[in-house]
């Protein structure tokens, strides 16, 4: 076997090792799916669905959420819960994870066969890094949020692969991805509008030879995103959904944009809320650099014909714009940065932006020779982000018996007769327990919305909340 044959076998082996390592990281997090939990949203929404049918889904969309795709998914999930009288949180999140995994790995496997294992290394690395370096509780283990944000992320990854393979060859995929992105969440609205707007702007500005079909394929997603944006602005955008009511940014667009500029940088590199900024920043920036380099070698060389037609810079710019817009929107709506799920999505978007930048670098300047460490660089990024997570995982697994016991006691009490006892689930460092303030509650006009949701769902008038193990 010649040198080229040995190099090809070595490269394939490195890619496969990288895939196995990333797969292990994913499986470790998947093992915690049993910790998937409800919060107040599920109880209230599913109870209203039982009473009002699909009209309640429409009312929720029009009067509050403005997420056409995720609201329909929430309705399907709620209908299943009402039919089976079980929370089905684990099944819901597991199915969403499967969709995300399919969008990360399916296009990688089905693409260019000659570089299949390099593409698989990229797909596995992206999926693993989605779980590392930031909070995971809300996006991945809470169905009410997962139904909005996991489809958004899945659509973003699908869009990434469509653009990597050449948008002119994947127009249908681009259209599907943008509808999924724009109809699932507010940050998805920002991404769909930014990407479609930049594509249209590129056509208007001229220069590159771009088919009008490239514009046509983004219009359905743009339309869905604009309709959802209108609904949000006329409903939830007018609400007093306040965390920092005294903030100068609350419902002030200019002040929110100014405040978002430094906050976006800190939020992008700090990782989980409350983490030390500079140690975390160094790790994040090094891992982003490794992703850029890894993407260059794993996704290049591309055909030179793509050089004038590639939309990779457009995608990278749209991802950054969407992340920044979500930061500014938080200052506008809440008066301060909120919440873990938004932070998680911003960091995942930045990860995809750096991967798109690396892929574009490989198109503009293809590596002259095969680089055996291309997948190794991605593996190094996963290890760098995964080491701090290692100490957090085992305690989460140890909490599983207590969580399942608390959940079983709550549902047994809720489905039984008389006063309901709600047992709070214990909090972990990664995954917070489903809980309410400890105390006694009676259903009346002054009952809080979260407590009201629990009582309406279980059809109770009296609710006693106790601490985990209480």
Helix content: 55-70%
Low-confidence stretches: none
Order of helices and strands: HHHHHHHHHHHHHHHHHHEEHE
User: How big is the Rg?
Assistant: 23 Å
Number of helices in the DSSP assignment = 19
Determine the structural class based on helices, strands and strand pairing: mainly alpha
Mean pLDDT: 88
Explain what the structure shows.
- With 470 residues, this protein is mainly alpha-helical.
- The protein has 2 domains: 388 residues, no CATH class; 67 residues, no CATH class.
- The protein has a 3-stranded mixed sheet with strand order 1-3-2.
- The termini are far apart.
- Helix 1 runs parallel beside helix 6, helix 2 crosses helix 3 and helix 14 packs parallel to helix 16.
- The longest helix is centred in the N-terminal third of the chain and has 28 residues.
- It contains 19 helices and 3 strands.
- Helix content is 69%, strand content 3%.
């Amino acid at each position: 076997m010649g040198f080229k044959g040995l190099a090809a076998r070595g490269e394939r082996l490195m890619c496969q090792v990288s895939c196995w390592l990333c797969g292990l990281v994913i499986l470790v997090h998947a093992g915690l799916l049993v910790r998937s939990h409800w919060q107040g949203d599920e109880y209230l929404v599913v109870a209203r669905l039982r009473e009002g049918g699909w009209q309640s889904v429409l009312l929720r969309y029009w009067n509050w959420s403005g997420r056409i795709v995720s609201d329909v998914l929430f309705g399907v999930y709620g209908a299943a819960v009402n039919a089976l009288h079980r929370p089905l949180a684990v099944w819901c999140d597991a199915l969403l994870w499967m969709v995300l995994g399919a969008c990360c790995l399916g296009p990688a496997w089905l693409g260019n066969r000659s570089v299949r294992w390099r593409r698989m290394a990229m797909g596995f690395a992206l999926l693993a890094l989605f779980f590392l370096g930031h909070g995971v509780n809300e996006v991945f283990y809470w169905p009410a949020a997962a139904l909005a944000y996991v489809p958004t992320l899945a659509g973003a990854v699908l869009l990434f692969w469509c653009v990597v393979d050449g948008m002119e060859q994947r127009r249908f995929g681009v259209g599907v991805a943008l509808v999924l992105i724009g109809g699932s969440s507010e940050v998805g609205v920002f991404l769909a509008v930014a990407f479609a707007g930049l594509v249209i702007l590129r056509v208007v500005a001229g220069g590159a030879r771009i088919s009008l079909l490239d514009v046509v394929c983004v219009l359905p997603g743009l339309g869905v995103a604009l309709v959802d944006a209108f609904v949000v602005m006329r409903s939830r955008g007018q609400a007093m959904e306040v965390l920092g009511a005294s903030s100068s940014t609350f419902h002030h667009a200019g002040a929110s944009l100014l405040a978002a500029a430094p906050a976006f940088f800190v939020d992008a590199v700090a990782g989980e809320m409350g983490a030390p900024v500079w140690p975390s920043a160094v790790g994040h920036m090094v891992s982003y650099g490794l992703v850029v380099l890894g993407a260059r070698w794993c996704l290049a060389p591309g055909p030179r014909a793509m050089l004038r037609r590639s939309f990779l810079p457009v995608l990278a710019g749209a991802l950054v714009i969407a992340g920044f817009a979500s930061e500014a929107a938080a200052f506008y709506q809440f008066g301060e940065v909120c919440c873990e799920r938004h932070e998680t999505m911003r960091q995942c978007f930045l990860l995809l932006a750096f991967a798109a930048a690396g892929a574009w670098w490989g198109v503009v300047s293809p590596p002259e020779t095969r680089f055996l460490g291309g997948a190794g660089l991605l593996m190094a990024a996963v290890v760098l982000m995964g080491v701090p997570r290692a100490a957090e995982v085992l305690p989460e697994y140890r909490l599983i018996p207590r969580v399942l016991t608390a959940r079983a006691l709550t549902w047994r009490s809720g489905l039984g007769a008389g006063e309901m006892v709600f047992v709070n689930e214990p909090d972990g460092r990664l995954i917070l327990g489903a809980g309410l303030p400890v105390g006694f509650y009676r259903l009346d006009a002054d009952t809080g919305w979260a407590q009201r949701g629990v009582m309406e769902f279980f059809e109770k008038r009296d609710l006693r909340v106790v601490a985990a193990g209480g």
